[in-house]
Specification:
globular; mainly alpha; single chain
Length: about 475
C-alpha cells in the first residue's frame, strides 16, 4: 500500500525519467545522419561501414524490442530499464572513443540493443503510471518527445560538427549520452515503480522469442544493407523469403503455445481490437514517411545544394518547436478524439510532403533551407496531433500486464517503417543523382519524395478506416446503451 501511494506521488517525476530516455534513444536515430561524412573522413570508414553506423542501430533496436518488452512484462520493467540504461551509457562511451570504424559499428550495434531494451519499458511504465485522461496527457508529452527527438536530431548533430570540428564533433554526438545517462540513472533507481501487475503465466517462450527476432532480422536486413549504389547485391532480397518462413513458423508456434495454456511472446488476440490493429499499421507507415523525409532533405541540401551541416540541421527547428507545443496541448483531447486527430494530422502531413517536393524541384537553391523550414513549421502541426493520439488509441484496449510487449510491437513497426522508408527513398535518390548536377539532384529529391507521398496517401487511408471503425463502435455502444 505504501509503495502504491509513493508511486502515485512520484508518477510525474518518474515520467520525466522515462521521457528523457525516450528522447535520447530517438535522437540517436537522427543526429548521426549529418555525422557520416566527418566519420568517413576522420576514421576512413567505407561506404558499407558508414551505412552500418546508421542502419546497425536501427537493426539492433528493432530486433530487441519485442523480447525486451516481453521480459519486462513478465519480470520487472524497472530492472530492465536500469540494465538498458547502463548498457546505453557504456555503448555511447565506446562510440565516442572508437579508434576505428569497425569498433564504431560494433558499439553502435550495442547501443541499438540498449535502446531496444529501454523503449518497451518506457511505454509499459507510462501505462502503469497513468490511467484515463491523465494517460492521454502523458502520451501527449510522450508524442512531443518522439517528435522532438526525430526533428532536433539533425540540428544537434550539425551544431556539434560546427562547434567542435569534424572529429570531435561526431565524437560528442555520441558522447553527450554519457553525462545525461549518468544523471538519469540514480533518479531511475529512486523514482521508477518496482512492482507491476503480471499474467498468471510468466513463460518467457524462448522459441517464440527466437522466431520473432529472426523474422524482424530477415525483414530489416536487406533494407538496412541498401545503399542505392551499384555495390548493393540483389541476393540480399532472398532474405525476405527467409522472413516469410520465420513469420509462418512464429505464428504457428504461438498458436500452439496458447492452446497449451501458456503466455506467448505476442498475444495475437490484441489484433482483434481495431484500435490496436490499425494503430500498428499506421505507425509503421508514418515512420516510413517522417525519418526518410528528414534524411532525404539532409542529403539534398548537403550534397545537392552544398549547404553546411549546421545550416541543414537548423531547417527542422521550427518543425520541432511547433510539433512539441501542439503535441503537449493535443494530449488533453486524445482521450475522446484520437481517431479523428490521426486522420487530420496524416492528411496535413501528406500535403506538406507535396509542398516539399515542389520546393525541391522548382525553388531557388540558395533560399532552400529557409523555404523548407517554413513548410516544416506548418508540417509540425501534423505529428503534434498524430503522435500522442495514435499512441493512446493503439494501446488503450491493451491489458496492463501486456503493455510492454504491445508497445514494443508498435515500436517494431516504427523501426521496420524507418528502415524500409530510408532504404527505398535513398535508393531512388542515389539512382537518379549519379550525374552529380544540381538538375539531377533536384529530380532525384522530387522523385524520392513521390515515393514518400505515396506512403503518406496509404497512411491517410488507414487512418480513415480507423476513424470509420471508431465511429461504428461508438454508434453500437450508443444503441446498446
Amino acid at each position: 500500500m505504501q509503495e502504491t501511494r509513493t508511486t502515485q506521488q512520484n508518477r510525474w517525476p518518474a515520467f520525466i525519467v522515462c521521457i528523457a530516455v525516450a528522447i535520447a534513444t530517438i535522437l540517436d536515430l537522427a543526429k548521426v545522419n549529418v555525422a557520416i561524412a566527418p566519420i568517413e573522413t576522420t576514421l576512413g570508414a567505407s561506404s558499407s561501414e558508414a551505412q552500418l553506423i546508421v542502419a546497425g542501430y536501427i537493426l539492433a533496436f528493432g530486433i530487441c524490442l519485442v523480447p525486451a518488452g516481453r521480459l519486462g512484462d513478465i519480470w520487472n520493467r524497472k530492472a530492465m530499464f536500469v540494465i538498458g540504461l547502463s548498457v546505453y551509457v557504456t555503448a555511447s562511451l565506446a562510440c565516442m572513443l572508437a579508434p576505428s570504424s569497425g569498433i564504431l559499428v560494433l558499439s553502435r550495434l550495442l547501443q541499438g540493443v540498449a535502446a531496444g531494451i529501454l523503449m518497451p519499458q518506457v511505454i509499459g511504465l507510462i501505462q502503469n503510471l497513468f490511467q484515463g485522461k491523465e494517460r492521454g496527457s502523458a502520451f501527449g508529452i510522450f508524442g512531443a518527445a518522439i517528435g522532438l527527438g526525430t526533428a532536433f536530431g539533425p540540428t544537434i548533430g550539425g551544431l556539434f560538427i560546427g562547434a567542435f570540428g569534424d572529429e570531435w564533433g561526431w565524437r560528442w554526438i555520441f558522447g553527450m549520452n554519457v553525462p545525461i545517462g549518468l544523471i538519469i540513472l540514480p533518479f531511475a533507481i529512486w523514482l521508477l515503480p518496482g512492482r507491476q501487475r503480471h499474467n498468471a503465466s510468466n513463460d518467457l517462450d524462448l522459441p517464440g522469442v527466437f522466431l520473432m527476432a529472426g523474422t524482424v532480422l530477415l525483414i530489416m536486413l536487406p533494407f538496412v544493407l541498401t545503399t542505392g549504389t551499384s555495390a548493393d547485391s540483389p541476393a540480399r532480397w532472398w532474405m525476405l523469403l527467409g522472413a516469410v518462413v520465420f513469420a509462418v513458423a512464429f505464428y504457428l508456434w504461438e498458436r500452439r503455445y496458447v492452446r497449451e495454456g501458456k503466455s506467448p511472446v505476442i498475444d495475437f488476440t490484441l489484433f482483434q481490437h481495431p484500435s490496436y490493429r490499425y494503430g500498428v499499421i499506421f505507425t509503421s507507415l508514418f515512420f516510413a514517411i517522417m525519418p526518410p523525409m528528414f534524411f532525404l532533405m539532409t542529403l539534398f541540401n548537403q550534397q545537392g545544394l552544398g549547404h553546411e551541416a549546421v545550416i541543414v540541421g537548423m531547417i527542422t527547428i521550427p518543425y520541432a518547436i511547433i510539433s512539441a507545443i501542439v503535441s503537449a496541448i493535443a494530449g488533453r483531447y486524445t482521450y475522446r478524439h484520437a481517431a479523428s486527430m490521426v486522420l487530420i494530422g496524416a492528411s496535413l502531413f501528406t500535403l506538406a510532403l507535396v509542398a516539399l517536393a515542389l520546393l525541391g524541384a522548382f525553388a531557388d537553391g540558395a533560399a532552400m533551407p529557409i523555404l523548407m523550414a517554413i513548410v516544416l513549421a506548418f508540417a509540425g502541426v501534423a505529428p503534434g496531433i498524430v503522435m500522442p493520439a495514435n499512441q493512446l488509441r493503439t494501446v488503450k484496449d491493451v491489458p496492463l500486464e501486456s503493455a510492454g510487449v504491445a508497445g514494443s510491437f508498435m515500436q517494431v513497426g516504427q523501426r521496420l517503417g524507418n528502415a524500409m522508408g530510408i532504404a527505398i527513398g535513398t535508393s531512388i535518390y542515389f539512382a537518379l543523382s549519379n550525374e552529380g548536377t544540381e538538375t539531377a539532384f533536384r529530380a532525384a529529391f522530387a522523385w524520392a519524395m513521390v515515393f514518400v507521398i505515396a506512403v503518406g496517401v496509404v497512411a491517410v487511408i488507414i487512418a480513415a478506416l480507423d476513424f470509420a471503425a471508431q465511429r461504428r463502435s461508438a454508434r453500437t455502444a450508443r444503441d446498446l446503451g
